[in-house]
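Render this sequence as a predicted structure.
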Amino acid sequence: MSRQGSEFYNNFTKDIFNTIKGISDDERGDYIIQTYENLYNRLSEEDKDSQPQTPAVDLAKLREDLSHVRGIGGQRLDEIMAVIERHLFPAPDNTENKSEENERNK
């Protein structure tokens, strides 16, 4: 994308340039920080709005409901709940432990 087509270029008018040019270094730094913070906050709000919301899951109620399904016993229920919990609360990737484990297996 060319500079002329970018939103930044279109919004960075000559008036803004002259404002920045005409103020002291301290004021210029404050102005840039304030502009950055405003942009950051606006983009953060846009990210919050665009992310789909995950419904809350009551694991105890889910476990109880699954226990009423015919053919699912206690052991199978434990296995199913473990899989569900792994997907809802994934463990952080610990590549250091994985590489150590791979070295031991060689």
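Summary. The chain is about 70% helix and 0% strand. The radius of gyration is 27 Å.
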